[in-house]
Amino acid sequence: MNAGEIAQRVAALDDAAAAEVSAALEAGHDPVELLRAGVIRGLEWIGEKFEAGEYYLPELMMGGELAEKCIALIDPHLPAETGASAGVVVIGAVQGDIHDIGYGLVAKQLQLAGFAVHKIGVNVPAMTFIEKAQEVNADIIGLSAFLTTTIPNCAEVVEYVRDMGLKDTFNVIIGGAETSQEKADQMGAAGWAPNAVEAVALCRRLMGRND
Ligand code: B12
Questions:
Q1: What is the pLDDT of residues 40-97, one digit of tens each?
Q2: Closest ligand 1 atom, CA of 97?
């Protein structure tokens, strides 16, 4: 079973996806490919089906759980993290927001790109982001927000960082369904990215790398 077929099983909410992931790993398939072109692609399709009115909340939740099961199987096979060489990132979902699949994928891609990533969960108060960033000497604070009602909580983190005189210490970036470059600019965030691949490119740029 290849990554494309796994994507289809995930999108179809077929529990067999997890067993297929295990079999594909045993057969020597590339774990990064299985993650990106398999599980992540399947999740994207689930999002599209939801948007199209084909799936409802229960399907979304089942899809999220199935994807998490598959990702847990792939995780131990991913290339070893290279430590903090590329930079240190603290990332989580802002207060009021419990969408964790999107930022989980950003965290995963950043790890694969050599960043040291500290995931701090969902529904995270503004000060908790800053305290964690100080604790781990972060370069970047990543805020995930999926709801119109939670985006203002990103602005709160940006404001606190500025008011505490930490603007040159931490680059605050944002992402998630209802965010945009325009909203990032309005609140004075250091950057925005539409997906995990672009998020890696953004973080590299912020760390002064242009590759
Ligand atoms: C799955 C899902 C859920 C799941 C979340 C499961 C989980 N564990 O995360 C559940 C069922 C729990 C859920 C709940 C709700 N949801 Co919801 N959900 C979605 C859905 C369909 C997909 C989100 C997702 O995970 N996509 C898959 C990921 C892989 O793709 P992605 O989102 O594009 O992620 C990429 C980028 O966003 C980016 N990114 C993400 N985070 C970050 C962070 C940084 C720093 C950067 C740089 C980039 C970045 O990189 C990611 C990877 O490529 C979206 C629809 C949509 N268009 O997004 C609605 C959506 C976000 N939900 C919505 C709503 C309304 C809700 C609920 C209020 C529903 C309800 N009535 O209860 C609740 C709110 C819960 C809360 N308090 O947070 C609305 C928000 C509308 C709005 N304008 O506010 C949306 C847009 C659906 C819609 N069209 O109406 N939801």
A1: 889 889 888 988 999 998 898 898 889 889 988 998 888 765 555 789 999 999 999 9
A2: 78
Q: pLDDT digits over 13-36, tens only?
A: 999 999 999 999 999 999 989 988
Pocket of ligand 1 (CB under 6 A): 43, 47, 50-51, 57, 60-61, 64, 91, 96-103, 105-106, 142-144, 146-148, 173-178, 193, 195-196, 199
Q: Which among 99, 123, 150 is the best mutation to test ligand 1's pocket, defined by most ligand atoms within 8 Å of the CB?
A: 99
The mean of the pLDDT values for the chain is 91
CATH number for the 3-77 domain, one of 3.30.1490.100, 3.40.1170.60, 1.10.1240.10, 1.10.238.10?
1.10.1240.10
Q: Whose CA is nearest to atom 48 of ligand 1?
A: 175
pLDDT at 168 over 90: yes
- What's the gap in Å between 99 CA and the centre of ligand 1? 5
The CATH T-level fold of domain 88-206 is Rossmann fold (3.40.50)
CA distances from 35 to 100, 114, 141 (A): 16, 17, 24
